[in-house]
Structures are given as structure tokens and as C-alpha cells.
Amino acid sequence: MNANEQKSRCPWCLGFPEYVTYHDTEWGVPVFDDRVHFEFLVLESAQAGLSWATILKKREGYRKAFADFDYQVVAEFPESYVDELMQDPGIIRNKLKIRAAINNARRFMEVQQEFGSFSNYIWGFVGGKPIQNSLESTKDAKATTPESDLLAKDLKKRGFKFLGSTTIYAHMQATGLVNDHLVDCFRYEEVKS
């Protein structure tokens, strides 16, 4: 058994190697880069009704199809490109989700104009610093919180699509607005500091 296998991890990530890598390197790390926020918004809105494992396996396909998550380019995608994307097996071929990503790129830039960056906007919902939860079991984890409810409601008011409270809470976990690593996970303290 190597040292990597001996580490205590959140049990949800133990399905396949990409999951473990994602958990160990990205999940819960505070993100302040707008492009990374946009990437996760695209991926999480695509996840609706599917597993995160499915989305992680298609992440490279999304990177190619969505201009390396350059929201300025995505915002300009014409309807003809939506039809092209519907033929791309590298992504989830759902017309509503594809159109939502394009719409959300446009709304994303409106938020940037108002707040200086999307990061400034989203971090305002947690007082500018990560919420540190102390979960002892995955049973303690929540699907939504008052903060995700408020954020999802505000995003909806601004015209964003496919970003309800559960999806937004997943975004908050992924981008480190919330530390939901279990307290016995080796990443809990690393992410906390």
C-alpha cells in the first residue's frame, strides 16, 4: 500500500482515480479566478440530473467545446454552434444546458461589470472568507444552505439558468467558499489553512 492509499479521504471520492485527484487537488480550494468560477458554473449546470463522475469524465470535452471556458468567447456562440455542440459526444448533449451555458456567460460578464469581478460578487455571499464546516460524516452534509439559497435566488433574478440552490451549493463546495471536507480527511486542515 502506498502513502497515497493510506490517507483518509472523504468517501464520496473513492470511486475512480480522476475523482481522487479532483478531491485531492481542487475540491474545496478557495477560487478567486473568474475563469475557474465560470468553468465550474458550466460543469455544474451540465451536471443537473447526472453524477459529478460523468461530468469529470467529460471535462476535457467541455474544455474544447467551450473555448477553454473563456466566457467572452462563449457569450458570442451563435445558434448554429449550439447545433454543432449537439453532435459532440465529448459533452452532455442537452440543448437547454448548452444554451444555458451561453446565456450564463453573458450574465457572468454583466456581474463582472457591476462588481469588478465575478469573484468579488460570489465571495460577498460568504462574507469574503470560506465557511468552515466541521463535518464528521457525509450524513452531516447538506444539499443547500441559506447562503446557497440566497445566491441561487440572486443569480436567477440576474437571468442565470440551471443554477438552483443545490447546484450552487456544489459550486460553493468545489470553489472553496465552503470547506465541506470531513474533519478526518487529510484535506480538511490543508484547505482550512
Automatic annotation (TrEMBL):
Pfam families for this protein: Adenine_glyco
Coiled coil: none
InterPro entries, per database record: Adenine_glyco, DNA-3mA_glycosylase, DNA_glycosylase
The protein's name in its UniProt record: DNA-3-methyladenine glycosylase I
